[in-house]
Amino acid sequence: METLLGGLLAFGMAFAVVDACPKYCVCQNLSESLGTLCPSKGLLFVPPDIDRRTVELRLGGNFIIHISRQDFANMTGLVDLTLSRNTISHIQPFSFLDLESLRSLHLDSNRLPSLGEDTLRGLVNLQHLIVNNNQLGGIADEAFEDFLLTLEDLDLSYNNLHGLPWDSVRRMVNLHQLSLDHNLLDHIAEGTFADLQKLARLDLTSNRLQKLPPDPIFARSQASALTATPFAPPLSFSFGGNPLHCNCELLWLRRLERDDDLETCGSPGGLKGRYFWHVREEEFVCEPPLITQHTHKLLVLEGQAATLKCKAIGDPSPLIHWVAPDDRLVGNSSRTAVYDNGTLDIFITTSQDSGAFTCIAANAAGEATAMVEVSIVQLPHLSNSTSRTAPPKSRLSDITGSSKTSRGGGGSGGGEPPKSPPERAVLVSEVTTTSALVKWSVSKSAPRVKMYQLQYNCSDDEVLIYRMIPASNKAFVVNNLVSGTGYDLCVLAMWDDTATTLTATNIVGCAQFFTKADYPQCQSMHSQILGGTMILVIGGIIVATLLVFIVILMVRYKVCNHEAPSKMAAAVSNVYSQTNGAQPPPPSSAPAGAPPQGPPKVVVRNELLDFTASLARASDSSSSSSLGSGEAAGLGRAPWRIPPSAPRPKPSLDRLMGAFASLDLKSQRKEELLDSRTPAGR
């Protein structure tokens, strides 16, 4: 019984597996591993119905373009994944995050442009990574971070790589094979292969390498190496097809005893094209550096920029360093910058930069030095707490008229009046929240000034701000100030000192001032209230006028609609009918001798009946029919009344006005007819 149940269970599992196999694929259930084979089936994407228990998945030779995170989700048991020979150009980050058991990943012969830091994330047990024959132009520094200690085979050949994350390669201690051939590599960091003791194959063929870093690992590539062990196997090393620069830096490689792989020299000119292993050791020479151009002397005003140049030649190309006057090695900082061509830029000079800078050019054959003398013309510096300045090295006693002092300050005569204080040489006026006008005066006996300099600073910091002003100006507007802040300002004059042939400076004068506080300007409350009141009054008048006009229109409309029908009904009840032109009999209550009354005003009944019928029936056609019937019946007919049960139609203003006009015209016509029938003698 148990055997029968086991057989049925196995049959059911096999049927379920076969049923879950994607279309056009072949699924193999060997022992406990499931293989899904879909090679060269013309697939445009990864089949979504792949069994998540698959151990081996082959999708090579298809037309898959994109890999998404859902393609391999929950496939924790997948060991071998082949995506070779597709057209994959993009892999979504974290697409392999669930493939924690994956050992081999084949991505060769695709169109991948790069590998991001999260492209291969999650492959913690990966041993073989094959990404050759792609279009890789760059690899992120953290791309291999998850499998640095497990990777054994890395193939990046036939790509467009200019560089690699060499620090990551250095930590791949279990790496056995590294294929980097047919790329664009031109530099390998020194010490990259120092810890790769298990490396057995290194291929650097057809790159742009001019030199290789000396490393003990290359000693295992010698043909006579007898120290190979399972933990340090012999190294198969290929580096042909590189433009090697055959100088003293490659002498260590030439001294290795290995087979001739037809490597050639690319430079220098005397060795170009010769086989590397046929060049004698004496020909691997270097040339010591020679400084060909450098700055000799430099005079700089304190606070200004300075540029020091130094160029050198040699084989190999020398590296240039700079040493400051205080024997400090100058590097890149916020104040200085050293460039590859040997130029040193000092963005802001200080008094400490005065002295001799040393340019050192060094290569494998030696070094050369040159001195650059830098002279800094010091300027007086201001302090936040006082307007006093430090005296400069060069002084001119009569630079300003106010700087002259009379000898014998006590005076020789008792009756001599005291002298008034000297006039200030620097005046600050027209101070606003962000600007101030500075004026100064210079004595006529002063030397010819080349230029003036304004230097000022805020009381909140120590940063001096400089402004260079032509000698023809004696006033300057300082802008971009901070409101409500105190400033210390000095004006300096610069001229050529004939005694030292240097540019001398002296102070014209100093001043202190405070900018105005930036308070918002208040407007008159009265004007605001008056303006708002006028706007409200005018607006209220306009609104009230519109409301009154609307109410009048509504009242007139309602009055016309409701009162017109009642008036017409009253008029109809008081109308006498005309009977063959005779007059109505006089009332019986009239006195016997009273004069005969004139004929009463006869109103045509038909028109009133016409209008009343039009209001009741709301139809022009029915009005015209009632007119015809009335004329046919004659004037002796009794008046027609609207039945009380009939619904009264809602009159309209247009129809009411039309009825009045029609009634007026017809009444005039009937009166004319009656006048024509009346005898002339009456």
Automatic annotation (TrEMBL):
The chain crosses the membrane at residues 529-555. It is found in: Cell membrane; Membrane; Synapse. Residues 619-638 have a biased composition (Low complexity). Residues 421-518 form the Fibronectin type-III domain. CDD domains: FN3. Its main location: membrane. This is Leucine-rich repeat and fibronectin type-III domain-containing protein 2. Residues 407-416 have a biased composition (Gly residues). One of its GO terms (cellular component) is synapse. The keyword Disulfide bond applies. Keywords: Cell membrane, Disulfide bond, Glycoprotein, Immunoglobulin domain, Leucine-rich repeat, Membrane, Repeat, Signal, Synapse, Transmembrane, Transmembrane helix. It is a single-pass type I membrane protein. Residues 1-20 form the signal peptide. SMART domains: IG, IGc2, LRR_TYP, LRRCT. Residues 289-375 form the Ig-like domain. Promotes neurite outgrowth in hippocampal neurons. Enhances the cell surface expression of 2 NMDA receptor subunits GRIN1 and GRIN2A. May play a role in redistributing DLG4 to the cell periphery. Belongs to the LRFN family. Residues 583-599, 641-650 have a biased composition (Pro residues). Residues 383-424, 577-601, 619-654 are annotated as: Disordered.
